[in-house]
């Protein structure tokens, strides 16, 4: 049977090119547009992967943050550079009160990991970094992530530190705002980022990446010899 992946990738890359031409990305949850595009610099000709491979990998920043690891109610100090010790780390920025996109992406990540063999699954770390520190404390993040995978680690901290970390991933967000309707809006980019052992981001996946496609890419990355 012919491999359907080239056609799928071609459609996705055409959409990515169109997005970069207007230099805007539809931000998750808020439905607003951000002026900076995390896909700029992506290699749209790499047909070996479903995700977008970056010609110039992002360099991860490591300001002081707090994680849900351990039993301390206030959390455990965490650095996105010093404490990302897995062979491959997936980093997604979002918030627990997101009505739709964040839940979908986290569910897709959990589904993708379930498709890997156990040995590969143990080599992948998943970090959910909040864009809403005013409401996402350690306890809230622990409870929220249990719905998807108890191994997922929640990350919070002060707003300035979180924004510094996010900017290194080309993720941009602002402090949440209360809407006239009574709702609460937090606008942010929504790609899933791969972090390697060198604390760089060599590739990312858009929010519409299916669990199958993500699992195939993860298996490919894990099969490559360490540099």
What does this structure look like?
By secondary structure, the protein is of the alpha+beta class. It contains 6 helices and 13 strands. The strands form 3 sheets. It has a 9-stranded mixed beta sheet with strand order 3-4-13-12-7-8-9-5-6, with helices on both faces. It has a two-stranded antiparallel ribbon with strand order 1-2. Strand 5 and strand 6 (76-78) form a beta hairpin. Helix 2 crosses helix 6. The longest helix is centred in the N-terminal third of the chain and has 18 residues, at 5-22. The N and C termini lie far apart (34 Å).
> Which stretches are poorly predicted, pLDDT < 50 over at least 5 residues?
1-28, 30-37
Q: List the helices and strands in order.
A: HEEEEEEEHHEHEHEEEEH
Q: Count the beta strands.
A: 13
Determine the mean pLDDT. 80
- As laid out across the biggest beta sheet, the strand order is 3-4-13-12-7-8-9-5-6
The helix count comes to: 6
Q: How large is the share of residues in beta strands?
A: 15-25%
- What class would the helix/strand composition place it in? alpha+beta
N-C termini distance: 34 Å
From the spread of the alpha carbons, the general shape counts as globular
Helix fraction by DSSP (H/I, runs of at least 4): 25-40%
Radius of gyration: 17 Å
Largest sheet: 9 strands, mixed
């Amino acid at each position: 049977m012919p491999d359907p992946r080239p056609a799928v990738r071609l459609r996705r890359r055409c959409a990515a090119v169109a997005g970069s031409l207007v230099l805007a990305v539809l931000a998750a949850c808020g439905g607003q547009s951000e002026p900076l595009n995390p896909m700029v610099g992506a290699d749209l000709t790499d047909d070996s992967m479903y995700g977008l491979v970056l010609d110039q990998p992002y360099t991860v920043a490591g300001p002081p943050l707090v994680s849900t690891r351990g039993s301390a109610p206030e959390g455990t100090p965490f650095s996105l550079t010093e404490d990302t010790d897995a062979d491959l780390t997936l980093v997604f920025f979002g918030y627990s009160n997101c009505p739709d996109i964040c839940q979908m992406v986290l569910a897709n990540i959990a589904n993708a990991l379930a498709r890997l063999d156990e040995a590969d699954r143990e080599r992948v770390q998943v970090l959910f970094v909040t864009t809403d520190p005013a409401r996402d404390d350690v306890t809230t993040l622990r409870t929220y992530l249990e719905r998807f995978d108890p191994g997922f680690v929640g990350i919070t901290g002060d707003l300035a530190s979180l924004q510094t970390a996010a900017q290194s991933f080309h993720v941009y967000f602002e402090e949440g705002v209360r809407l006239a309707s009574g709702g609460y809006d937090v606008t942010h980019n929504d790609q899933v980022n791969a972090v390697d052992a060198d604390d760089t981001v060599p590739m990312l996946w858009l929010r519409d990446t299916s669990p199958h496609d993500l699992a195939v890419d993860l298996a490919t990355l894990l099969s490559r010899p360490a540099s």
